[in-house]
Amino acid sequence: MALGFVRxxxxxxxxxxxRIQLTTWQQAYRRILPRHVVDGIDEAxxxxxxxxxxxxxxxxxxxxxxxxxxxxxxxxxxxxxTGEVDEAALAPDEDRAAILRPDVAAVTDLxxxxxxxxxxxxxxxLAACTDLWREDGFTSAIAWAFEADPAMRGFLTSAGWELDxxxxxxxxxxxxxxxVRLHTMLT
Length: 187
Fold this sequence. Notes:
By secondary structure, the chain is an alpha+beta fold. The protein has one domain: Aminopeptidase (3-Layer(aba) Sandwich), CATH 3.40.630.30. 33% of the residues lie in helices and 34% in strands. The chain is globular and about 50 Å long.
């Protein structure tokens, strides 16, 4: 019987987080993101970015968590990155004061490698994030999802998140990829 759990990421996890991210983008987002863009991402660069996020987060409220499946051996199967909301959470021409508040958390990444999906890892990651957000004094959280990604939208809405009516186009090599924003209250 496999056991799943979530823990804070440590520097030794950076390369595996990068691998999971790129693998997930290549598999789950192959019809959403341009293939040449995803295939052209340097895994060493992504690993370095994750190492920096783990070792030197912008604030104590920024965290990288990993989901682990423990069977005969442990496998890193997913991750989340969250923290204080910042400019990246805004849509073009959006009222900054409405979103850029110290009580709003933002999900920058929440991915489970497709081959490990539907085993509760995403739910455990989201629950751990929610617990930490509440400890940190956040009262709400937001996350962007690709409009063409019903799995992520369905996952978040099944956990009580709602679309907030805000959308934007993520510029990926001169292609605007539509995104929608979801939010939830933590109180």
